[in-house]
């Protein structure tokens, strides 16, 4: 059993204020007993699509060092939803999630595989590939509290990634996000619950919420979902923290009583995810 917190934010182009706010929410969640705390995608900076992303830095840079020190001071696992990671000899960057343990060590680094390139006329238009490089590696982190899989936002639409993480042993899968208001309205909760149900895992999905700039807004609805697909914690709007206790004995009971994972036809899983 572990107590988990998902933080919902309304990040803007004011980087220092975003980071200070994230730290306040982390401390609030920790004081409430959370042992694993998750931030949303782009927690340190979020502005309009179509603008170059400033403040990119390597994984060993100032921001992650600051988060590592905070995790160590509080004695928590901390998921840094995503940061802009600098790539050597490239104008592009990675959208990168970093998991830090209670000793302040970075134990998981995941670079978003699926880039958000869409054009819904009059509703949402994004071309992440103009500025971002896609990652290639499926990342599962083994901790003394269990096995945890890492994804980011648009990855949610690709069930083969979640199935791959599950087959590797994932009991929790993180989905830090900045889902658009329009697509989130129709798809966010449906997809989160589907990924939880079909893989019989806990989903922890901290999200961005509200308007970030004149051209960009996010759906919110940060959620924690259990292996049966029940939403056990939800913050629809605004900023704040939601918490839930994750019971891995319950997860085992779900899997034992409804052994879907034993019935998977593994040859249908794309080789790149093995």
Major beta sheet summary: 6 strands, mixed
Secondary-structure-derived class: alpha/beta
* Order of neighbouring strands in the sheet with most strands: 5-4-3-2-1-16
Please state roughly what percent of the residues sit in beta strands, choosing from under 5%, 5-15%, 15-25%, 25-35%, 35-45% or over 45%: 25-35%
Radius of gyration: 17 Å
Instruction: Please give the number of β-strands.
Output: 16
Q: Detail the poorly predicted runs.
A: none
Structural shape: globular
**What's the pLDDT, averaged over the residues?**
92
The number of distinct helices, counting runs of at least 4 residues, comes to 5
Separation of termini?
28 Å
Query: Secondary-structure element sequence?
Result: EHEHEEEEEEEHEHEEEEEEH
Helix content: 10-25%
Write a concise synopsis of the structure shown:
With 274 residues, the protein is α/β, with parallel strands linked by helices. The chain has 5 helices and 16 strands.
Question: What is the secondary structure topology, with strand pairs?
Answer:
Blueprint: E1 2-8, H1 15-31, E2 36-38, H2 62-74, E3 77-86, E4 93-100, E5 106-111, E6 117-120, E7 124-127, E8 140-143, E9 146-150, H3 159-167, E10 172-174, H4 181-199, E11 202-205, E12 209-213, E13 216-219, E14 222-225, E15 231-235, E16 240-246, H5 248-257
Parallel strand pairs: 1-2, 2-3, 9-10, 10-11
Antiparallel strand pairs: 1-16, 3-4, 4-5, 6-7, 8-9, 11-14, 12-13, 14-15
